[in-house]
Amino acid sequence: MTDWSNKKVLVTGASRGIGVGIAAAFARAGARVAITGRGRDALIRAQRSLSEQTGATCEIIETDVAEPDSCRKMADQVESLFGGLDVLCANAGVYPEKLLDQIRPDDVARIFAINTFGTIFSTQACTPLLSASGHGRIVLTSSITGPTTGYAGLSHYGASKAAQLGFMRSAALEFARSSITINAILPGSIRTEGLSGLGEAAIARMIETIPCGRLGEIGDIGAAALFLASEEASFITGQTLTVDGGQTLPEHADAF
User: Residue 44 — φ and ψ, nearest 5°?
Assistant: First the structure.
């Protein structure tokens, strides 16, 4: 199994939610981890939480992935902190709900700037370090919404997440000869701070649509990222891994 003790990992958008789960998985495995986000206070809270969970100290880097210059500075800081990089988890994203007839151009621009362009800019900035490692891994956090399913009010979000996968497949071909793999996780309904705010009744209805009978946990996504970044996954690239408890399987509500 992969020895993570000398691996250097960068997780974007890790001040809360799924990003914290991904960072925790790598930290528990023994990797050196840096997390990014746009707000220093939130990053410090996440750093403390990760330390309590794992006993490890994660580095923090303020970054706006929608800005190429910020991403380049992020990569420079990682190199300064760790001397290199083995794994990029491009997790940063936003999840605004708005019906199609209410969406304005700036809504589309914002969500693509973070979810899609942020993935591209982060990948570009970190590619030299990942190539130098000789076994670079890139793990994207996409979604079932867009690539697999639809949801009213999330048309622009779904489009941004589907676009990530178009980028991933072509990037995988460019990276293949450099021993860099790039894959994506497609989470279903995961218990995060935002989901908890919906209330117990809404969560109960959501669970009814999941054959496994529960919400996913951020640790489930962390485990998937750990696998895709491992040496054991070296022959997997340009692929998606759906982590949804079977949510996308039923043909209709009576199928399970």
Answer: -65, -40
